[in-house]
Design brief:
With 529 residues, this protein is of the alpha/beta class. 41% of the residues lie in helices and 15% in strands. Strands 1-2-4-3-5-10 form a 6-stranded mixed sheet. It is globular and about 80 Å long. The chain binds zinc ion (ZN).
Length: 529
Amino acid sequence: MKKWFRIAGLVSVLFLPALLFAQQSTELPALKQEAVTEVDRLQTFTQQMVDQIFSYSELGFQEFETSRYVTGILEKNGFRVERGVAGIPTAWVATYGSGKPVVAFITDIDCIPRASQKPGVAYHDPLIEGAPGHGEGHNSGMAVNITAALVLKKLMEGHKLAGTIKIFPGVAEEILGSKAFYVRAGLFKDVDIVLGTHVWHEFSTSYGTGDGKWSGLVSVQYFFHGKAAHAAGAPWDGRSALDGVSLMNAGWEFRREHLRLQQRSHYVIINGGDQPNVVPSEAAVWYYFRELDYPHIKSLYEIGNTMADAAAQMSDTTVNRKLVGSAWPTHFNKVIAEWQQKNIEQVGMPRWSEADQMLAKALQKEIGAKVEGLKDKVTPLSEPVKEPIGGGSDDVGDISWNVPTVYLMYPANIPHLPGHSWANAVAMATPIAHKGSTAGAKVQAMTALDFLLQSELVKQAWDYFRDVQTKEIHYESFLAPEDKPMVEMNKEKMEKFLPQLKKYYYDSAKYKSYLEQLGITYPTVKAQP
Ligand SMILES: [Zn+2]
């Protein structure tokens, strides 16, 4: 009896891995189908999350309500949550399961200044004048990832699947403020693959340099210090910090002509002094220096620093600087993208209603964009462009150079919008965002299953990461050891609007949707002439 057990034990040790793998591969399509069905069953939950976070409208580093709400859901569902990671109060990590592989989900949660907008209304109509709003659509990402994670947990329990799911929030993404700090804090050390996701009007994924419209950057604030004096009575006694700022900006504008065409740089004056009859003793300017790779970003940053020092010399002021954020240009993983693409094609575009299309077209007309409505086909996976031209940035770039990563773009917004504005908030608490998020959650869950059940795919993703992506380029953080996350940023702006925003928080116990709570007819469009 004893001996028989020993032999059976030996046999199972020898054959179990192969057996398990074969079993898992045949199980995979059925599990994916189950995931799709479960995501569909959670449609109301997904919609409520999209609407709830839309109503919080929190700026970078001030995502307190959003984080409380999301971590609350996760804890209630058996995830372990660690808060305040990487020295950021609104950052956290939620974990479920154990062992390998470790699959991480990440998506942004912050919003845009002055982008307040009534959802479902196809013209500029702020909910609260001047208030922050989800004018990019970051309110939908957590609905995608949490829906997928809850479904995965259920399947992992039900089918006894091994592996770990981790969830991260992209805090202060709009100021590229958190993810390089996450990497520095070692939060991704034990992670095998990262499935990031971001709102878009297409259903797509990419690898390598993708469409070439991504840049990396450093975001830096320069603080000039002068000497106050009566601006008319004794101007010769004063030294204007604003002169320092103005000279730096003028210098930068001239230098721009002699920089590579791939650079993009922009600035805002964050402190220009108090009133004209006081020579400004303090002034400050905030720059984004964008380029395509680490050496070029570093060199732009150094030119900026030289220009600041020279401007201080000219104005007889002093200057110091603070790094606010940084981002490596993204590089996504080919192996994961190829598997993800199959899932995108299997899920397909959401079925848009006439009302959805009417809202999209009316908004496109209103802002003078191409009137095309919503996309009805998924985007094929294309070869990365050979000569990137650059564009926006995302600090997920730093993660992508440390762990094999992809970014699923899910179709929850309207095409041809300007980005970072009220127009990009219009669809974000409507059926367009709800359906797009459900579609995104299906792909997240299916792609996670691909990697949970086929361990050799994790190896292939790492082979690409080591042998192709990082063969010649090695990650080096832009952060200096003394750089800290700027967690106080946006505090005053947020506090100013909080009492008004609270009146509009979505109450899902009382109202089916945020549109219903606000009494908005969907869609609200201008009468046709
Ligand atoms: Zn974004």
